[in-house]
Model the fold of this input.
Amino acid sequence: MHMADALLAPAVAATMYVASGTVTGMSVHKLKKDEDTQKLPAMAVTAALVFAGQMINYTIPGTGSSGHMCGGLMLSALLGPQAGFLSMVVILTIQCLFFADGGLMALGANCWNMAFYGCFVGYYLIWRPIMRSSWFGSLEPRAAARMRIIAASVIGCVVTLQLGAFSVVVETSLSGITELPFGAFCALMQPIHLAIGLVEGLITSAVLVFVFESRPELLQDANCEAKGITGRRSLKTTVIVIAVAAAAAGGVLSLFASPNPDGLEWALFGNSEAGYSENMALDEDNFGIRSGAADAAASVQEKTAFLPDYAFSNSESAAGTTVSGLLGSAIVAGVAVGICVLGGFFRKKNRSA
Done:
């Protein structure tokens, strides 16, 4: 769902920068009061895992499309909505600047569509209410909590991806891209992202159930201590397992990503070469809006993106994908923790505010 600059008018892009920037500022302010130092290693490895996970496109059968995880709900369930949102901003910014994934002018919109809904709407309206509910109360406490995690993950991912997909349609409509009539574009975007959301929900639930079984106190609103639910692994072991999973996803599994276009690209351009629908049938080399702001943003990306499209320049070597996955995951982890340390987030409890 990474939008290109051509899909946005400069005024709409600027508005979305203001919206995402405001949420970023509010998140920074809130995190300065946080005292949970366990979040630092958890933030590093989970942010790396989400970066790597976004490189793995999975085929949506029968459509000619593919999807990849967003990760906002997963991060907010582990870190809280503010830390989760900032982690997503780091991920999307690094993808944009170093890998030319998503437009620089569109970065504010991408942060809103892919991070805000999952981290805030998904957390406050879905994750927290379900985790605090009595759903599956007839089961023993550990089994009931596990089922609530699965339900919250699937429902949360489906709902927030639908909201993100709908926002893309609204933003292009407000940008005046007449080749994308609202109704037709919406009719393509919503169903395909419903399928993508279902798969992401299952992936998210698998990761969160692992964390729950390992170190349940890392999950937000699980209230495991009061229910007598304890972990089965040390924090160190849990962090190492997630770090290894991130390295495997970025360095190995990314090599087997589906070649099909993702949900947004599929809606815009179709996949007629593989025998599927043309959908909106836009010209991939000439679509949307040309503007001086977009050209300037593209010029910046050309200078900063040292592994464009997660590959070595002018090379089809698979090593480029592996290096992109490993290096990108490491950069994301380092930057996320570095920002927190420099910002004074996650202080020790015996330290004065």
Q: What stands out?
A: The chain has a mean pLDDT of 93. The CA atoms of residues 8 and 120 lie 24 Å apart.
